[in-house]
Design a protein that fits this description.
The complex is a heterodimer of chains A (360) and B (440). In chain A, 74% of the residues lie in helices and 0% in strands. Chain A contains 14 helices and no strands. The mean pLDDT of chain A is 86. Chain B has 440 residues and is α+β, with helices and mostly antiparallel strands. The radius of gyration of chain B is 29 Å and the shape is elongated. Classes of the chains: A mainly alpha (360), B alpha+beta (440). At the A-B interface, helix 5, helix 6 and helix 12 of A face helix 15 of B.
Chain lengths: 360, 440
């Protein structure tokens, strides 16, 4: 059993891999002022759900959510996990497709998107086949490779910012909560994996909280960097606000023209790790629910990865990607609300059972 | 066992070996036979030694007792002992025998300066072929009761002695058990470090090794203290540190002889060297052939100018030059020391001047190639430096297809591959091996 900070790093990477397409844009669409309130509200809701989730999980040491659902009954587990597997496969698909589109935009405008998808597909499937421990170690490596790059980008953008672009700083009405996009923003939390790694890794909640705090800081800086450069009116019209913001950076002493390269490193690394972990989760669920041998997990992972890859080929353009991402985030919202609560209820019943058995 | 029988067995098994000797000796009234291989045993000196002992011994039984504590051994063991350079005495028509330690022919090298590494301001002795000498070198520096030394023999044709050295209470017990387990499973001959690697479960395609090879006793001790195991193979003048970690190619024990800041600088330089070797040729190809727009305009123009009139594509040009450089490096190793420098010079002229004058490759590439050669050599340990040199090719090919993106993905892929490697459950990319009792 590994103990340490690794799940915390994975937590940050999972969230950072998720925000650049939809999250940033939705935050700008949801409110005109006080963007930090949106981020903070979303993060706090996430924190509450996560707290509930980990609290409930801690009642079942050495068990993951699949084991817990299986305790409630095989068909219940099947009925709950099947939609999650479908949802995760869709996530992998969208993630490969969206990242290939972004990378194409940033680096290889003349290359067809499927060529980039093949790359991402191979590397992420390979990483996922290497297993959870490799993924966790990779997330530490990638954290130290990528976060300095992001910080470098954000710091070097300091010369371009205009602090007045962020005003008004307060939004006392909190009207964004009723906005139709707000559920999608909340739905971009990626903490479900914590319940799946718990059978192989033990971690402390306090360390996840540290990771969460760092994540909030990174979210805020990713939201505010383009906003401070372009201002609210311009930014809602942009295609990919963060990339355009990095493109606007001019570093005189640096031999490369665009700071986007650093952003590219981040994107590749996030995409690979994000997909790898999702595929690993799929493999884990499929193996435990169907009860097949552990040796067959690689086949399951490859099968789902190929399904995701082929279906990603059929997404024609960015408009569709955004639409699907929006739908997917709603499904994700259902998952992150339903799973913690159901696990909590099961743990509650379980505790009652145990107490009754003890009384007899 | 009758003496005649044993001698017939010896002659039938080793009769065609010229170095087998079976000699009858007579001291007083006692008659006995000496058997052995005169390539391993210094016969004349040994005979003198036996005579001297015989003078103080009253009977033949007494003589055997004085000479040896291995008396009346079975035939198989006698033959094995003979092959291992021992002398056999058969007395009283084969009723008694003994294995004695003769005066050996001097087949071992004395302790010399290290040949494969050059420590700066550090002790200058190196391991030799003899295991005992090697363990002695370690014991001399580490006179602790916690230092454990155990050995086993593995192999089929050639029984090879493998010794394990570790500090009890430091090296994790799981690790020691695992190594013992792995050693027990070996049934084939261990001819090389790679054989040992394979029997420890490395795939043939894996460029890294389970073992960090060192010839410096102080470095071996440095690793022992840091909870590793040092393995010695007989007739192999290096200690094999297990497990080998990624960080070992950047840090040596020698660094600790300098102030911390200097040591950190040295390590930083080595890390830069490794990254440069891996990435620079790929970066050149990516920037020249696929993503020229990444460079600032004046730099892009400079690159374009330097490639004016060059007939090859960037990939082919880089490929030719990196292969040429690798050829030169290999040639320097192969050639005798008297010819080596001249090859370097000729190579330098070809690479540096002639190729550029002939407009076959660009000026810039020559600089890139030189940088690679220099940076590839700063890594600690020849095998690490070799595998880093090898890994630059996949990144180069990726970069030629996908440009900067290919470089990044290639780099990340290689990192993921290295991260996934483990030895006895200890990740290759761990910075240190935990002490016994620590939770990892």
């Amino acid at each position: 059993v590994i103990k340490g900070w690794q799940p915390g790093f994975t937590f940050i990477i999972m969230h950072m891999g998720n925000i650049f397409f939809l999250y940033v844009k939705l935050v700008y669409l949801t409110t005109n002022s006080g963007h930090w309130e949106v981020v903070m509200t979303q993060s706090l809701i996430q924190f509450l759900l996560m707290w509930l989730y980990i609290k409930a999980l801690s009642r079942f040491p050495q068990n993951d959510i699949i084991d817990i659902y299986l305790k409630a009954g095989k068909w219940i587990a099947f009925a709950i996990l099947l939609p999650i597997v479908v949802h995760l496969t869709m996530y992998v698909m969208l993630n490969i497709r969206a990242h290939s589109e972004l990378l194409e935009y940033a680096f290889l405008p003349r290359t067809p998107f499927w060529a980039i998808m093949i790359l991402l597909f191979f590397v992420s499937t390979y990483t996922s086949l290497k297993g959870l421990k490799t993924i966790l170690r990779c997330s530490v490596f990638i954290f130290f490779l990528v976060i300095p790059c992001l910080i470098f980008i954000i710091c070097s953008s300091m010369t371009n910012i205009d602090i007045h672009n962020a005003s008004p700083f307060w939004n006392r009405s909190f009207d964004f909560i009723t906005d139709k996009n707000f559920p999608s923003i909340v739905g971009s939390s990626m903490f479900l994996f914590l319940g799946l790694i718990s059978s192989e890794v033990s971690y402390k909640f306090s360390r996840i909280v540290w990771a969460w705090a760092l994540m909030v800081l990174l979210f805020l800086s990713v939201i505010y960097m383009p906003l401070l450069i372009f201002g609210q009116e311009t930014i809602v019209t942009l295609f990919l606000p963060f990339i355009e913001a990095t493109d606007s950076i001019e570093i005189t002493w640096f031999p490369l023209n665009r700071a986007t390269m650093f952003f590219g490193i981040s994107l590749v690394a996030f995409a690979v790790l994000f997909n790898a972990l999702l595929l690993w989760m799929i493999g884990q669920m499929a193996q435990k629910v169907t009860g097949c041998q552990k040796a067959k997990i690689p086949l399951v992972i490859i099968a789902f990865s190929v399904i995701a890859f082929i279906s990603a080929l059929f997404i024609p353009n960015w408009v569709w990607i955004e639409k699907l991402l929006l739908w997917n985030s709603i499904v994700q919202l259902c998952a992150i609300v339903f799973v913690p609560i159901s696990i909590f209820l099961i743990s509650f019943l379980h505790k009652k059972d145990v107490l009754e058995n003890e009384n007899f | 066992m009758i003496m005649r029988d044993f001698i017939t067995v010896l002659t039938s098994e080793f009769g065609n070996n010229e170095d087998l000797f079976i000699e009858e000796e007579r001291i007083g009234t006692a008659v006995f036979h000496l058997c052995g291989f005169n390539t391993l045993v210094d016969t004349s000196k040994t005979k003198v030694y036996i005579r001297q002992i015989a003078e103080t011994s009253s009977t033949i039984g007494n003589l055997l007792m004085n000479l040896s504590d291995k008396l009346d051994v079975k035939q198989d063991e006698l033959i094995k002992a003979m092959l291992n350079g021992k002398l056999i005495i058969l007395a009283e028509n084969g009723k008694h025998n003994a294995i004695i330690e003769p005066i050996p022919n001097n087949l071992v090298r004395s302790i010399q300066e290290p040949r494969n590494s050059s420590p700066i301001q550090a002790s200058n002795d190196a391991f030799v072929e003899d295991i005992k000498t090697n363990v002695g070198l370690v014991r001399k520096r580490l006179p602790s009761k916690q230092l454990c030394y155990c050995s086993s023999e593995v192999g089929d044709l050639q029984k090879r002695k493998i010794s394990l050295l570790y500090i009890k209470g430091n090296a994790p017990q799981e690790l020691i058990n695992d190594v013992n387990q792995q050693l027990k499973q070996i049934h084939t001959d261990i001819e090389s470090v790679d054989d040992l690697n394979r029997s420890f479960g490395r795939h043939w395609w894996c460029p890294t090794s389970h073992f960090f090879v060192t010839e410096l006793p102080f470095q071996a001790i440095h690793f022992l203290k840091r909870n590793r195991i040092v393995i010695f193979l007989d007739n192999y003048p290096f200690g094999l540190v297990y497990p080998n970690l990624f960080w070992d190619m950047f840090a040596t024990a020698n660094d600790h002889d300098f102030p911390l800041v200097t040591a950190l600088l040295l390590r930083f330089i080595r890390v830069i060297g490794a990254i440069t070797t891996l990435v620079l040729p790929a970066l050149y190809v990516a920037v020249v052939a696929v993503n020229p727009e990444l460079l600032k305009i004046d730099l892009a123009l400079f690159v374009a100018q330097s490639r004016e009139g060059i007939p090859f594509t960037a990939l082919l040009e880089t490929f030719i030059m990196t292969v040429l450089v690798d050829l030169i490096l290999e040639a320097i190793v192969r050639l005798p020391k008297s010819v080596g420098p001249s090859v370097t010079m000729v190579g330098g002229v070809i690479l540096g001047t002639a190729v550029v004058d002939a407009k076959l490759v660009s000026n810039l590439l020559v600089i890139v190639i030189t940088a690679i050669v220099i940076s590839g050599s700063v890594i600690v340990g020849v095998q690490s430096s070799l595998y880093i040199r090898l890994l630059k090719y996949p990144i180069l090919i990726m970069a030629s297809i996908y440009g900067i993106l290919g470089l990044l993905i290639g780099f990340i892929f290689i990192s993921i591959y290295l991260i996934s490697l483990t030895s006895s459950g200890i990740p290759y990319t761990a910075f240190a091996v935990g002490k016994e009792g620590d939770t990892r």
